[in-house]
Specification:
Blueprint lengths: L2 E8 L5 E6 L2 E6 L9 E12 L1 E6 L20 H15 L3 H14 L2 E9 L7 H12 L5 E7 L10 H10 L4 E5 L8 H15 L2 E6 L3 H17 L6 E5 L8 H14 L2 E3 L11 H7 L3 E2 L17 H12 L4 H18 L15 E4 L4 H7 L5 E4 L2 E4 L15
Parallel strand pairs: 1-4, 5-6, 6-7, 7-8, 8-9, 9-10, 10-11, 11-12
Antiparallel strand pairs: 1-2, 2-3, 4-13, 13-14, 14-15
Length: 403
């Protein structure tokens, strides 16, 4: 399908027309003449953004569309939340396949074109959740770029057999391998990380490690990860998720770790979640660290918070960071788009000729306004095809859109 969308403002800049051919942006310039047999849409001088990216989700955990869940986790530790969640999902027979589809549907309408999701794998559920999400991935392959992370949420070394299940998930097509708090959960950071890195090296997959551990304990894990990254030449293939410790250590130690992260091209994912200090995003961004963000779990047994909308997540990050200036808010939006695409290694992403047409068009004078107002009226295009929203035909065209 060839589509010409007139009167758009890429990232809030001057108005241009956008021509999509064979799923890609073929022209992006003012006053384009429609080619033959082209559908023409009036962009109404709206903002044009690249598709929004949720680089840290848990699609298998959400309780969207189910009866309200009253939070009853009996303790404050992460293990308390993990154990409660595992038992709840088993008792209620929650379908990871169904719940993943619900969140993907909601995400599509909000202009999200890419998701990286962690999927729980443990010795009780086995690969049930993973296989369910993989079926959903296949179902939505034309509407959503989905990366999967085989994730040992209940622990790895402390639950015999989990390593073998993770390896089987990698054999079945998991894109990444996850880890979790090597000291506080598995109680053996060296063996935990050695096991993860050996699997990642063997199956040529990326690592995305949840690191909630605070202060110097978490920083110690970061150093161990940097060492192993260098030893196995895995530069550019590791993401540290949450990594609260980067916001809890002194500047001298932080600068030391920044040097190591830059040297190994390790990315950092932050949500600004909870009440915990979190990484100083502007400092990391300006230093050149690759950053990404996401929704984390949405309305699950951990709590009723979070939204599928990445614009809402960017606003939360701005609020928690104390950002008021447009340029700072737009920096966070850059993290939720271009920088997150870099983490997901999507070289065809962006607002430029030759890039894949994964786009969201919405009201707003500036990207910062779009973040704050989070308008529901969004036109979403994936692989050059309209996947959500109502279009306005171009009245001046002899061949208006009938999408």
């Amino acid at each position: 399908m060839t589509v010409l969308i007139k009167h758009l403002r890429p990232w809030g800049k001057e108005t241009v027309d956008l021509l999509i051919e064979a799923g890609k942006i073929s022209k992006l310039e003012p006053s384009l003449t429609p080619p033959a047999q082209c559908q023409v849409i009036d962009g109404q001088n709206r903002l044009l953004l690249p598709g929004l990216i949720n680089a840290h989700a848990h699609l298998d955990k959400n309780l969207l569309g189910l009866p309200w869940h009253k939070n009853q986790v009996p303790g404050p530790r992460i293990r308390d939340f993990v154990d409660f969640e595992r038992n709840f999902r088993k008792e209620k027979n929650i379908s990871a396949e169904t719940q993943a589809a619900k969140q993907i549907e909601a995400s599509i309408h909000l202009g999200i074109t890419h998701i990286r999701t962690h999927i729980d794998i443990d010795t009780e559920a086995g690969l049930e959740h993973f296989e369910g999400v993989m079926r959903t991935k296949e179902r939505y392959k034309d509407k959503m770029t989905l990366q999967t992370v085989a994730f040992p949420q209940s622990g790895m070394l402390i639950r015999s057999g989990t390593v073998q299940l993770l390896e089987e998930a990698l054999k079945q097509g998991a894109d990444c391998l996850g880890g979790l708090d090597p000291s506080s959960i598995d109680r053996d950071p060296v063996k935990h990380l050695d096991t993860l890195f050996a699997l990642a090296d063997r199956y040529n997959v990326e690592l995305d490690i949840h690191l909630h551990e605070p202060g110097e304990l978490g920083a110690f894990a970061v150093e161990l990860i940097i060492e192993r990254c260098k030893a196995l030449s895995l530069q550019g293939n590791i993401t540290l998720s949450h990594c609260f410790c980067l916001g809890q250590i002194d500047d001298r130690y932080l600068n030391h770790l920044i040097d190591g992260l830059l040297d190994t091209q390790i990315a950092v994912m932050s949500l600004g979640s909870g009440t915990s200090p979190f990484p100083p995003l502007k400092k990391l961004y300006e230093a050149g660290i690759t950053l990404c963000t996401g929704t984390d779990g949405i309305r699950d047994t951990w709590g009723p918070h979070n939204s599928p909308d990445i614009l809402n997540r960017v606003q939360v990050l701005a609020y928690r960071s104390g950002f008021r200036k447009d340029e700072d808010i737009e920096m966070l939006l850059d993290i939720a788009t271009y920088s997150s695409a870099k983490v997901m290694k999507d070289g065809e992403y962006g607002l430029a000729v030759g890039k894949r047409a994964d786009l969201v068009i919405l009201p707003g004078d500036t990207p910062a306004q779009a973040v704050i107002e989070q308008a529901s009226d969004r036109l979403v295009i994936k692989n050059g095809a309209l996947v959500s929203g109502n279009v306005a035909p171009d009245k001046d065209s002899d061949n208006p859109s009938n999408i």
